[in-house]
Amino acid sequence: MTGNVILDPLIPWPLVWMLTALAVAITGLALWRGLAGWWLRGLAAVAILAALVNPALQTEERNPLSDIVVLVVDDSASQRLADRPEQTAAAIARIEAEIAALENTELRILRIGDGEGNEGTLLMTALAAALAEVPRARLAGAILLTDGQVHDLDRAPPMAAPLHALLTGQRDDWDRRLVVRNAPAFAILGEEVTLTLRIEDQGAVPATLGQTTQVRVAIDGGPAQSYTVPLNQDIAVPLVLDHAGRNVIQFSVALEEGELTDRNNAAVVQINGVRDRLRVLLVSGEPHAGERTWRNLLKSDSSVDLVHFTILRPPDKHDGVPVSELSLIAFPTRELFLDKIDEFDLIIFDRYRRRGILPGLYLENVRDYVEKGGAVLIAAGPEFASADSLYRSPLAQILPAAPTARVLEEGFRPEITELGQRHPVTEGLEAEADGPWGRWFRLIELEAGGGQAVMSGPGARPLLLLDRVGEGRVALMASDHAWLWNRGFEGGGPQMELLRRLAHWMMKEPDLEEESLGAAAEGQTMTITRRSLSEGARGVEITRPDGETETLDLQETAPGRFQATYQGPEIGLYRLTDEDLETVIALGPAAPREFEQTIATGTLLAPVVEPTRGGIVAMQAGLPDIRTVREGRLAAGRGWIGITPRGAYLTADLRITPLAPAWAMLLLAAALSLGAWLREGRR
Predict the structure, then answer these.
(1) Of 110, 426, 459, 674, which is most buried with the most CB atoms under 10 A?
(2) How far from the centroid of its chain's Cα atoms is residue 391's Cα?
């Protein structure tokens, strides 16, 4: 309980001071005139003034409030390295015991993990949130239990009490980190692109380690190749992408003995491969209505370099016109089919028949071109069923079907086969038209010997067959009436979309692979997609960044398409495996921000701690004692850290007792005035 005198004047203070001055003047005048009761007059004035200022005794009954110490514990990923969890647990137990031993002091503990996404350790944000819930008058101090690698120093709150940092880690900690300095988002297929890497060591690196190390490079989860590279230097890595679409390049270095972690020993770069120009050779055996359809399709794409030849005058034509008078261009067969055939990405034979223009040797060269990775598309007309058919040439060894010599001239609507419903070339084609497809009127009957029939005609006869030969691909369309869809006959059909998909499948575009495993990431959520021509349940094995594995079942969302959504528990590199397919994907960076710098240090926190007169203590040297210090004094020393007691309280009761009641003061003033009058009257 405490008490103090308070004044609660009955009139404004300026008026009180005016009356005080008047009383002093009257008393002084009485003294100057030699009045015997001047002092009684002065006391009377004092009594009147005392009544006006209304003095009272204020008595408070106080309940003391405890001082609060805030402990912010860094539980981010880098704090789970080596023996840091044990150091953290021991420090918490010691601090709890020390605070419990202090009188009227409580400890509030706040634990923080990794920030969302790749923000790193948001220690200052957590401290500011904790202090916002603590009354300023009760805050005795704050302690940060961390490795010192903080990523939000600009959000440090103002401190009215000592701030201390207890650092985990050991003096001999060291780590190796792989960094991708720069990598392009896009690269042209077949052209060299250069990435810059750096492998740097941090901390107390053992002297026994050399100045070089082995870096492994793997593309799209394939076999890794090793290279010897120097440490702590920028390294130029030349790469040539061999397929379009997303190329995932993974770089990694082996974990060395004593290294803190291997979480920053890998990096993943995703580069989209794009074709500079798609070179297509279109050979039309003779002019026909569908020839312009092929030409318009290929010329509509600015990325396509089209070489188109139409055989207008075969060698066996004898019309008496001298060759020197013709304005036709001679077919450069040798140049195209011997010297420069490997420069083309796709060769299309549109209603071509053997007329002696392309000798067997040239067609053998086309066959070898396919087996080495090229692509051939045959749009068959009636000549494919004749004696001049391309099937009766060396190309027969790579074609998926043989003609029966029968040509069906009847109306039919092309249909997608059961297999075609699952194949990416024809999947969902029905949705590309507003109504039923228009009819075609010619089909070359085929006897399928292999390949995949994705479209069919009357009597379920194969209409479009796809096949893989060696490293290349072959497509055979058993009709030359696709142009009817382009003309809108009977409503037309998805002719442009079909031919576009067909061309891109032959170019080995990843999005049109029949058997593929891919994933797309958004934040820490990945959508896994598995495409397959086979039926049955599908599952994918996921290897997380920490090495743990789990199996995720996929649901069939469309024929041949299986999908699932997976929420990654942490950012980093994930490996997906299903049968013989494998891919990798990074949620956030492969090496999160938490692992960019892993060596414990107090350098970053010094500008925040020092202004509060707090201390930064490495726990390896021993845990400090906690003492109480007065405000403004040094709050850290050898083997100890300090907090400032606040002495905050809560007022439970308040009583005010008047010291000079107005009636008593007025009565006293009257008595003193009467005494002064009587004393002066005797003289």
Answers:
(1) 426
(2) 53
Of residues 265, 261, 316, 308, the one with CA closest to residue 287: 308
State residue 507 phi and psi, 5-degree precision: -85, 5
Amino acid at 192: E
488-506 tens-digit pLDDT: 888 888 888 888 888 888 8
The candidate with the shortest Cα–Cα distance to 594, out of 57, 55, 234, 74, is 74
Q: Are strands 2-7 and 561-567 parallel, antiparallel or unpaired?
A: unpaired
Angstrom distances, CA of residue 475 to CA of 385, 399, 510: 17, 8, 17
Exposure string of 550-561, with b = 16+ CB inside 10 Å and e = fewer, is: eebebebeebbb
Q: How far is CA 448 from the centre of its chain?
A: 48
Give me 358's structure tokens: 């392309």
Of 232, 233, 165, 161, give the one whose Cα is nearest residue 203: 232
Global model pTM greater than 0.70: no
Q: Report yes or no: 337 and 366 within 8 Å, Cβ to Cβ.
A: yes
Question: 3-state DSSP: the chain helix, strand, coil percent, rounded to 5?
Answer: 25, 35, 40
Which structure tokens are listed for 515? 């058997």
Element (H, E) at 28: helix 13-32
The DSSP symbol for 450 reads S
Please write the tens of the pLDDT for every residue from 609-637.
999 999 999 998 889 999 999 988 999 99
Largest CA distance in the chain: 170
CA distance 213 to 256: 10
The residue with tokens 């692509």 is 375
DSSP-derived 3-state class of residue 279: strand
- Calpha distance 565→531 (Å, rounded): 15
